[in-house]
Specification:
alpha/beta; Rossmann fold; 5-stranded parallel sheet; 5 strands; 11% strand; SGNH_hydro_sf; Acyl-CoA thioesterase-1; SGNH_hydro; signal
Length: 223
């Protein structure tokens, strides 16, 4: 009885070792297959009402259109829209750390600054906030892309030029890609009023495909 038990034990041990040897190549193959899969990218949009679909239907904004374009192109990219109407660069700066920790994005589209101008905040404050936002993105391993904005002519030529120029300054200082002007091709139209809502600040839904094209021209090369 003892001999039979010993033989049975040795047989089971041998079978276990054999199965283990068979399983090892399978595990290695699984690891190689997983490593071969492309990394899934995630784009975080940190913006204000221009990105938060203010005054237009759900799914009509440029961020939603971006999701559909990526899907159509069969690109494995997730888009998280963290835009809030009325947000400033200060607000975005304070919200960003938690967003970076939660979503761990590969790219961050920074569309902020317009409300700073509307509130008459110092340009130096806006620039400092944008520099901090871009720096935080880089520190978290995300690629920041700055989306530039301009103000209407009634703000004055000097202020308008300085405001538009600060986005380029931040982009140059941080070696970050820049979308020169989100509303390019819309705001300077002869019939521009027909492309904006009654407040003359927020674009109508028909303007958002052009807004996406402006962003896409820079974003596509970063993906």
């Amino acid at each position: 009885m003892r001999r039979r038990g010993l033989v049975k034990h040795c047989s089971l041990l041998g079978l276990s070792l054999a199965l283990g040897m068979m399983q090892a190549p399978l595990l290695a193959a699984d690891a190689q297959a997983a490593a071969a899969k492309p990394n899934v990218k995630l784009i975080l949009v940190l913006g204000d009402s221009l990105s938060a679909e203010y005054g237009i239907g759900r799914g009509e904004g440029w961020v939603a259109l971006l999701e559909r374009r990526l899907a159509k192109n069969k690109q494995a990219v997730t888009v998280v829209n963290a835009s809030i109407s009325g947000d400033t660069t200060s607000g975005g700066r304070s919200r960003l750390p938690a967003l970076l920790q939660k979503h761990r994005p590969s790219h961050v589209l920074v569309e902020l600054g317009g409300n700073d101008a509307l509130r008459g905040l110092p340009l130096s404050m806006t620039q400092d906030n944008l520099l901090a936002i871009v720096g935080a993105c880089k520190a978290a391993g995300a690629k920041p892309i700055i989306v530039g904005m301009q103000v209407p002519p009634n703000y004055g030529r000097q202020y308008g030029e300085e405001f538009a120029g600060l986005f380029a300054k931040v982009a140059k200082a941080q070696s970050a890609p820049l979308v020169p002007f989100l509303l390019q091709g819309i705001a300077e139209r002869k019939d521009a009023e027909a492309w904006f809502q009654a407040d003359r600040i927020h674009p109508l839904a028909k303007a958002h495909p052009q807004m996406l094209d402006n962003v896409w021209a820079v974003l596509k090369g970063q993906l």
